[in-house]
Amino acid sequence: MEIEISSCKHLVYVNEIQQEMYDSAQRRGTGIAKRSIEYLSKKISEGNAIVATENNEWVGFCYIETWSHGCFVANSGLIVSPNFRNRGVATLIKNEVFQLSREKYPEAKIFGLTTGLAVMKINSDLGYKPVIYSELTQDEEFWNGCKNCVNYEILMKKDRKNCLCTAMLFIPENTTKNNIADKQLEIK
């Protein structure tokens, strides 16, 4: 299996990716903001996504989006083709998109919204912590992206303070502080 930063060569998979995002959300009955072909194509073309393939077949996908002038980065749209699920592909893709986010935006806080326990575990293993929604970007465009979600009405009734999704946040300086504290303990 190849897992790589997206490029124009991956545009051949965009229709399948978009359809599986939609179908997967329908099967699970959970919220996922629907993304247009144009939106996903732009992410792929700009190298702001991770695409996994095997034998010219699409395996998995996840993209990054920046908010609040690069202060926040969202890792979004994680999806694995049904033929490749339960093999650890989501973890591999999430690790790669996390590294891409850290390389492109080393000072940014990285966040995600999810209803999935598996994604919560992956995020936790990467150093994300559950947070309240006020800790996330307050960029209106981000929240407008939730309008396609089946849970949007719940989000708005709660004044964007919470929803059915769990918000998780990785703060780079916390990692640096933890690494320094660990090294100080080793010295003692």
TrEMBL record:
Stretches assigned to the N-acetyltransferase domain: 1-161
GO molecular function, one term: acyltransferase activity, transferring groups other than amino-acyl groups
Transmembrane spans: none
Entries under Gene3D superfamilies matching the protein: 3.40.630.30
This protein's name: N-acetyltransferase domain-containing protein
Source organism (scientific name): Chryseobacterium fistulae
